[in-house]
Amino acid sequence: FMAQPVITNSQIKKIHTLVSALGWKDEWYRDNLCSYFYVESSTDLTYQQAKDYIEMLERQAISAGVWKPAAEYRKEKEREDMATDKQIRMIRAMWSEISYEKNRKKRDLALGKLLERIVKVSHINFLLKEDVKKVVNALKAMKTAKEKKGLRREA
Fold it and tell me: How far from 57 is each of 49, 50, 81, 117, CA to CA, in Å?
């Protein structure tokens, strides 16, 4: 009988993180461990058992909406320097106030052209956080100019 590789510290951490994300009570988690692996504590799991248990917990946590798959999480991390959804909504709202274009698709295209001119990106989804202020200031200036012309569109 070969000794099985033991659970790693990072596996123990991940199990506890998942259990807490799922909102399980300690006794519930221990019953769960006991019924699957006949152990009292996660530290008694082998490396492979821990791997299997983590996969099972992740599936449950993802379907409960309290966990994101690693790939999805990485994709969000890559977007950290990008404008937030809230910033994008704000810019779109400001733009729809000053754009003369009634058609949404054409209005979005026009916004894309404006962004290309101001911050060199072709679409609002590529807008960087650091460029949001520049765009907002340009839109504010455009709104002021439009109001001065007295051509304010009646909502």
Answer: 12, 10, 31, 48
